[in-house]
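Sharing a chain and its predicted structure for anyone who wants a worked example. Both blocks are below, sequence first, tokens second.
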Amino acid sequence: MSGSIVELVRTQCALYEELLALGAKQRELVHAGDGAGVMEVVTRRGAIIERLAALQGEADARGGIDACVARESRGMPGIAAEVARHRARVAEIGARLARDDAEDIESLREASGEVAAELDRVGSGRRAVGAYSGAGSGAGMARFQDRRA
């Protein structure tokens, strides 16, 4: 991108809006337990983040956003105001994404704990079935029997 700093910041803000929309989709998928869907969204978010990094690199190569605004806004005060609006929106979205991602990570941790507990229950059930059926004893008779005392 070789346009003005305003164009760069507009593009940056639009990409953050895309991240916000994808974050909402990710949240739905996390709550639905759709791991494959979450990974697809994470991949799409990664591509956007790479584009944002490239934009930041371009801004840095120009001396940074603030320096560009100072150069480009001479005699055009609206440029500084527009850039400030976009930067405020980007900061707002960034904070929201960080909060939502932290909540999603916690939801995923809880879900993985529930899966681990369920797998443990399944394993216990299999061991109990094995004990009742005499699995591994080779005698063909149950090792334990339920009896009334």
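Comments welcome. DSSP finds four helices and no strands in the chain.
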